[in-house]
Design goal:
Number of helices: 2
Helix content: under 10%
Shape: globular
Low-confidence stretches: none
CATH class: Mainly Beta
Strand content: 35-45%
Radius of gyration: 19 Å
CATH architecture: 5 Propeller
Distance between the termini: 15 Å
Oligomer: single chain
Largest sheet: 5 strands, mixed
Bound molecules: (2R,3S,4R,5S)-2-(hydroxymethyl)piperidine-3,4,5-triol
Structural class: mainly beta
Mean pLDDT: 97
Number of domains: 1
Number of strands: 21
Length: 360
């Protein structure tokens, strides 16, 4: 039995198998924690979906029981979630009104690389599933963000950007700032790649996703059943190219961590604080401190890892755990987990310090 965390090392489940829940998230429900993540296979093929979303359960956060595949890929080759699609960063939230577990994830369609930029969702009656796939979409078709500008709504600017559509990719390929990506996607829905979910104290849920070719992050309110977007959203951190976002709340303030945008390679983490989840957000800089001796990567490379989620330990007021992945794109199944405690430095700021081992 484990009684401590060992960031970056193999983490064996109750069957002595390395936990297979990458890009994951943790929820607490009726006395147990559930960890959902991407089930990866060996080799570089493991970067596409071959099995589905894996779920584990735990009562102490150190020792995890394999609960199987919560959302299996579809055997139907025409399904959006078929083998060779990309199913990333699955997150699950519980809706106490409908008593359903709702899973959202980043979905890329088979054979299209990362061009589809969609989000998919699935629903279950039990935390361990089985989850039923419902649909995918690009969020907020036909809705402008709360902080839209008149220029973004200008038909000429939209048309000029649509004519250049094949020149934009998920990186700094051309000057995105000179075009109107938001406006170009107004009718069809906004792009949605790396994502997370956040449920506020009032039960309202939000979808946070890298949009506009990853240049700008959108935060979007979900409907009461958590199965759709309400059309209420904001653009945040414009042209800061953020991925891997996670939001948590402490003493009425909203906190944020994310990464930059460098594929599977590590980069410098970001953090931010806000009084409202829809912003405006104030950037706080890189929260990481220390060096991972396993790879000699320090704060400028996030210990060799990339953020995926932050959750609060049940019943512990100031105990928040930041979850990161060390990706192994050439042998995806060997990806490692880095879980570290968040330390609050003053009223508005926090740090995430490397620890070789630690306990709650
Ligand atoms: C970085 C993202 O954070 C990951 O989830 C994944 O999409 C990789 N990019 C793919 O290169």
């Amino acid at each position: 039995m484990l009684n401590s965390f060992h960031p970056g090392e193999l983490w064996l489940d109750n069957q002595d198998v390395h936990i297979n829940a990458h890009g994951g998230g943790v929820i607490f429900h009726e006395g147990k924690y559930y960890w959902y993540g991407e089930h990866k296979i060996g080799g570089s093929n493991g970067n596409s979906a071959h099995v589905g979303v894996h779920v584990y359960s735990s009562s102490d956060l150190y020792n995890w029981q394999d609960e199987g595949i919560a959302l299996p890929i579809s055997e139907d080759p025409d399904s959006e979630i078929c083998k060779w699609s990309v199913i990333e960063r699955p997150k699950v939230i519980y809706n106490s009104k409908t008593q359903k577990f709702v899973m959202w994830f980043h979905l890329e369609l088979k054979g299209q690389g990362y061009h589809a930029a969609r989000t998919g969702l699935a629903v279950a009656d039990s935390p361990t599933g089985p989850f039923q796939y419902i649909k995918s979409m690009r969020p907020n078709a036909g809705h402008w963000p709360l902080n839209v500008t008149p220029e973004q709504q200008d038909p000429e600017s939209i048309q000029r950007t649509i004519e250049q559509a094949d020149k934009f990719f998920g990186g700094h390929s051309i000057k995105h700032e000179d075009y109107n990506i938001l406006g170009a996607h107004f009718s069809g829905g906004q792009m949605s790649r790396d994502m997370n979910l956040f449920v506020d104290d009032d039960g309202c849920a939000y979808h946070i996703y890298s949009s506009e070719h990853n240049a700008t992050l959108h935060i979007s309110k979900l409907t009461d059943d958590y199965l759709d977007h309400q059309g209420i959203y904001t653009r945040n951190f414009p042209f800061r190219w953020m991925e891997a976002a996670a939001i948590f709340k402490r003493k009425g303030k909203y906190y944020f961590i994310a990464s930059g945008c460098t594929g599977w390679d590590p980069n410098t983490a970001r953090s931010a604080v806000a009084d409202s989840i829809l912003g405006p957000w104030t950037e706080l800089g890189n929260p990481c401190v220390g060096v991972n001796p396993q790879n000699n990567m320090g704060p400028e490379l996030t210990f060799g890892a990339q953020s995926t989620d932050v959750f609060q330990v049940n019943g512990k007021e100031d105990c928040y755990i930041a979850m990161f992945d060390i990706w192994k794109p050439k042998n995806a199944i060997d990806g490692r987990y880095v879980w570290l405690p968040i330390t609050f430095t003053d009223e508005d700021s926090f740090e995430i310090k490397w620890q070789t081992s630690w306990s709650i």
